[in-house]
Design brief:
Elements lengths: L8 H31 L1 H14 L7 H32 L3
Length: 96
């Protein structure tokens, strides 16, 4: 039987970095698509149209909470997607 040698920490880190780049590369297109959808005027209009309904619902009511969550997602997630897109784009662009 031949003795198997374990990869060094440096080799394992290089493998992980390569996998991270491959994963990042596979997520760029879906992130771009999500960003485009969330930036559409109709998406922002939905949040604007939902907001006045909150005043008509009891605070803490399930519908009030869920509508508030939708508004928050519509307004906050595009920034989060931008940050993630920048992160994965930078990772994809890193030299090997």
């Amino acid at each position: 039987m031949s003795e198997l040698t374990s990869p060094s920490l440096t080799e394992l880190q290089a493998q992980r970095a390569q996998l991270d780049r491959q994963i990042a590369a596979s997520t760029v297109a879906p992130l771009q698509a999500a960003h485009a959808l969330l930036q559409q005027p109709s998406t922002a209009a939905l949040a604007d149209e939902l907001e006045p309904l909150l005043a008509q619902l009891p605070a803490g009511d399930l519908a009030h909470v869920q509508i508030s969550n939708v508004i928050t997602v519509i307004r906050a997630v595009p920034g989060i997607i931008d940050q993630e897109l920048a992160r994965v784009s930078a990772l994809v662009g890193e030299p090997e």
